[in-house]
Recover the amino acids of this structure.
């Protein structure tokens, strides 16, 4: 009788709450105003012939490599960072191996790693959510074959420094170290230039966040020349669809659009932090396009009351170490204004009792 592999039966489904997402979307860390108009313009030119052909990834890969100052052999365009994670797990993990993740973090590392039969070791952050370098180094074992770190991290917004990441890559030469820079544009620090020298460092970037292309599913994985052929071998030759491939050059050509948007987000982040301080709502410093806030036992009511005002937030209280926490995506100034108006009203409605600030 047909039966699913036991390892897969045990996996928890990652089921993002995507239904009925009407209103201001501050729940999935997307771009709140969408992509560059140049991308939309380019998509109006799509022909039946374009759609009839299998997509050709390589020419766009060459362009993307140039954009990131890399050689084409060092990059692979992927179906979002999700696929990049999946490919790395497939290429480097076997049953009995260990994959190390820092908790709390993005769920897909654990899901794809566990699906291979590898054991997932979670290194829990302290309550300040600072990157737990010493604990990560202590948790390495001879079986460690993969270490996944998001910097900035989701859902905390905290970062690992270049030095910390290189220290890990050096300490674990038999492991693939994945640095997920999905939120790079809101932080501005990257380890992409280190790929040339490190033999085991991979960096993932996405076009889902600052570029506003989450619906197209396109990301980029870069890593050591020696190992990229293995990832190409297991990826579908058509992993990135033609619409995404046609859109990407237009998105890359409008760097200014992404710069202006990211700048607005950074200003909104400061503004929201000041407002939270005044309202007495604790939050963690973030280098991403979101802030994680501590609401406490009323987190569900808080998300529901903000939703009543047309704004979607993401309850993260089930994440490890995030009891009572809600994640708020930051968009353009107008969206931050709407959010702040709703926050003030909901604090009164729920009697969240702001701390008196000096
Ligand atoms: N990595 C991190 C850290 C994320 O937060 C997300 C999106 N939530 C992703 C990857 C997924 O990116 P993509 O849309 O490119 O698959």
């Amino acid at each position: 009788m047909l039966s699913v592999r036991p390892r897969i039966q045990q996996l928890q489904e990652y089921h993002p709450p995507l239904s009925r997402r009407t209103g201001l979307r501050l729940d999935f860390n997307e771009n709140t105003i969408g992509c560059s108009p140049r991308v939309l313009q380019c998509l109006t030119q799509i022909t039946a012939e374009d759609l009839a052909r299998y997509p050709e990834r390589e020419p766009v890969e060459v362009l993307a490599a140039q954009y990131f100052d890399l050689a084409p052999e060092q990059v692979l365009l992927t179906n979002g960072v999700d696929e990049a994670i999946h490919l790395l797990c497939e290429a480097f993990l076997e049953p009995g191996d260990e994959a190390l993740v820092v908790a709390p973090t993005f769920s897909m590392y654990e899901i794809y790693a566990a699906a291979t039969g590898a054991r997932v070791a979670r290194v829990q952050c302290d309550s300040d959510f600072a990157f737990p370098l010493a604990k990560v180094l202590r948790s390495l074992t001879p079986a460690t074959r993969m270490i996944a770190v998001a910097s900035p991290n989701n859902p905390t917004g905290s970062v690992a420094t270049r030095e910390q990441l290189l220290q890990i890559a050096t300490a674990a030469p038999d492991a693939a170290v994945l640095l997920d820079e999905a939120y790079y544009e809101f932080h501005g620090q990257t380890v992409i230039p280190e790929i040339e020298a490190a033999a085991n460092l991979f960096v993932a970037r996405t076009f889902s966040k600052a570029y506003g292309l989450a619906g197209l599913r396109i990301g980029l994985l870069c890593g050591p020349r020696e190992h990229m052929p293995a990832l190409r071998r297991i990826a579908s030759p058509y992993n990135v669809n033609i619409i995404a491939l046609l859109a990407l050059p237009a998105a890359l050509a409008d760097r200014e659009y992404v710069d202006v948007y990211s700048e607005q987000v950074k200003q909104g982040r400061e503004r929201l932090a000041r407002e939270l301080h005044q309202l007495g709502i604790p939050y963690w410093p973030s280098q991403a396009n979101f802030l994680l806030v501590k609401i406490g036992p009323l987190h569900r009511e808080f998300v529901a009351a903000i939703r009543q005002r047309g704004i979607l937030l993401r309850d993260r209280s089930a994440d490890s170490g995030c009891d009572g926490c809600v994640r708020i995506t930051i968009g353009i100034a107008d969206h931050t204004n709407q959010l702040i108006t709703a926050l003030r009203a909901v604090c009164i409605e729920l009697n969240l009792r702001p701390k008196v600030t000096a």
About this structure: The radius of gyration is 21 Å. The CA atoms of residues 8 and 323 lie 28 Å apart. The domain at 6-30+256-347 is CATH 3.90.1150.10 (Aspartate Aminotransferase, domain 1). The chain has two domains: 6-30+256-347, 46-253.
